[in-house]
Design goal:
Layout lengths: L3 E7 L3 H11 L4 E8 L6 H15 L5 E3 L14 H4 L21 H10 L5 E5 L4 H9 L7 E7 L14 H5 L1 H8 L5 E4 L1 H4 L3 E2 L1 H8 L4 H21 L4 E2 L3 H8 L4 E6 L1 E3 L10 E3 L11 E7 L1 H13 L3
Parallel strand pairs: 1-2, 1-4, 2-3, 4-5, 5-6, 6-12
Antiparallel strand pairs: 7-8, 9-12, 10-11
Helix pairs in contact: 1-2, 1-10, 1-11, 4-5, 5-7, 9-10
The chain binds beta-D-ribofuranose and calcium ion.
Amino acid sequence: MEKRKIILDCDPGHDDAIAIMLAGKSSAIDLLGITVVAGNQTLDKTLNNALHVCQYLGLDVPVYKGCGQPMIREKQVIAPEIHGESGLDGPQFSALTKKAEQQHAVNYIIDTLLASDGDITLVPTGPMTNVAMAMRLCPDILPKIREIVLMGGSYQLGNMTPAAEFNILVDADAAHVVFTSGRKITMVGLDVTRKVLCLPSVVERMGQIDNKAAKLFVDLMTFFNKTQKEIFGWAGAPLHDPVTIASLLDPTLLTTKECFTQIDIRSEQSYGRTNCDLFNMLKQPPNSFVAVDINVARFWDIIEGGIKNYS
Ligand code: BDR
Ligand code: CA
């Protein structure tokens, strides 16, 4: 079977790190590059975290530094209350020797898509500044994008405001650019990621695997579970970002509904909300496949398989 080519655009971040882990050694995925954006922490920190995760796991994947600020908004929102001061608190890494590539992430996305046969899937698991900037800088890339499978949004409640999810809120203008791009979009939002709670029983299950990936998983999730419990009261943290990768590995994992989704970039109270017209009230052409359900048991099997791919 031909491997699915992807570019992972992320802001590690505990759950982003697990997404890297899952994609990094999969026999079904060709992780062409990792592009990094500011989000869970400042850009220097999310870049360092991506490099640390690759180095620790022995992944020979090029990592590119992207945008450190939203497209238009002045304010860079970060999430230290969830991901800690480093953006990846919990594990202890050895000194960093892996280096980021020289090329800017936005140029890398553009050049790689232009040179492709239209077979690359973009997987954004952070604010979509890099992807949107690439689309605006070089619209010729649009027909070259096979699909966009993103973690972000919610047709129900948000996690930063009652209306908005973090990745969309941080750069709602970028999200607007992506959702109006005309490319196929699968929106993996909180509606499904809040169903995959990394309960203590899951941490114990993965911890029984005897390899470095399992150790990283446990170290990451121990911290992530603590902050998620403090803020949201969950008994386990929602493992948001890896759902994107898992859905590529098993196309039956998610139940999706095709609909028109609009990003709220105008209002004060609901800024950053993904308005998903699941009942087709607006009679607009659909622009997204919104995930509405997930096979939870299958998801954890995929995570376990991903960890076991490491020695
Ligand atoms: C998203 O926000 C970030 O904190 C996580 O990494 C995830 O991408 C969930 O709202
Ligand atoms: Ca993320």
